[in-house]
Amino acid sequence: MTRATAGRPRPAHGDPLAAEILRLIRELGLRAGDPMPTELELIDRLAVSRNTVREAIRGLRALGIVDIRHGHGTFVGEGSLAVLAPSLVFRTLADGGAGGLLNLVDIRELVEVGTMDVLAGAFSDETLARLEGLCDEMIRTSLDPAVDREFHRTLYAGLANPLVGQLVDLFWDSYHSAESELTLPADAANVAHTAEQHRAIVKALRAGDAARARTAMTEHFADIRARLARAGG
Asked: What domains appear along the chain, each with residue ranges and CATH number?
């Protein structure tokens, strides 16, 4: 195979070289988990220095595109959207306290309400029982964020489009990371109410009633907005 640089301008520094490495990954047909070409192979194929290759690999690793496993080698990464979370949290907090969380709430609502048509009636009895059990666990654990996250992840785990689940995870994680920085007040009544809202969503999905599921999810986000408004004064 000819070198990836043939007929193209020679990359001068890390950023364009990263683009060349991405192009090479595609040309070689590599998938997530596949071994990357070695450092020496990249140097030879792309006609650049060792330091330049290492700089580009570090940048791709930060994006989740490359996975370095010490003692094993370098592999193609998953390219998870989770790498965007720190930037989203920073932007949310910079946008002004509790009010800054509203942008994330808007996006979460667009994604999550929009999936109800697909999800209604699509769950197995086992998954529905799991979701109902998580509603009970929310009350027992005073709405442990990990339980809430598992509820939302379970809702979207069966979707054919894996990007939806990644988006839900990204915006859920970013929202709760920013919220924890603001130490917003919570109370037992709010925990019970949130659990009941989740239960209403599951009940509608079990019945295959997409319209009722959309309404229940919309009401859930309306209550989140109201709580943020109270916290923001």
From this structure: 14-79 (1.10.10.10), 82-232 (1.20.120.530)
